[in-house]
């Protein structure tokens, strides 16, 4: 299925480092998760999430992360990690990622993650703050889009 870069409102460029490669000469699979994490945290910053955490008493917890590897990536390269919102629930939301070779529409990987809003001391899920829900709505992907 085609994935349109234009479907995503938040894109973060990642530079492939020499150290990102494994013995086979391509980027190690764990690095893709780090790239998605960087895009996720950049989105959280864009949403002003820290102001919603009550001094970090509450906040996001990653509970699921997936990645489908489509093409090998080798150094040197730049990767554009696009992140958007697939679903907003009562206490959690699902993010979807598409990793493109920079300046192209070539998809090298896709992924998703589920983030739950938690009270860290109680170790319990909490309803998403209204401000977070409103912010996430601005990044919802079009229905026709599917990275999987």
Features:
Thiol Ester Dehydrase, Chain A; 148 residues; alpha+beta; globular; six-stranded antiparallel β-sheet
Outline:
The chain is α+β, with helices and mostly antiparallel strands and 148 residues long. Helices cover 18% and strands 36% of the residues.
Percent strand: 35-45%
CATH superfamily caption? Hotdog Thioesterase
Radius of gyration, in Å, reads 16 Å
Residue ranges: pLDDT <50 for 5 or more in a row? none
Question: Kindly, what is the distance between the CA atoms of the first and last residues, rounded to a whole number of angstroms?
Answer: 8 Å
Q: In CATH terms, what is the architecture?
A: Roll
Biggest β-sheet strands, sense, barrel: 6 strands, antiparallel
Q: How many helices?
A: 2
Give the SSE string.
EHEEEEEH
Mean pLDDT, to the nearest integer, reads: 95
Q: Based on DSSP secondary structure assignment, what is the total number of beta strands? A: 6
Q: At the first level of CATH, what is the class?
A: Alpha Beta
The outline comes out as: globular
Number of domains: 1
Helicity range = 10-25%
CATH topology name: Thiol Ester Dehydrase, Chain A
Structure class: alpha+beta
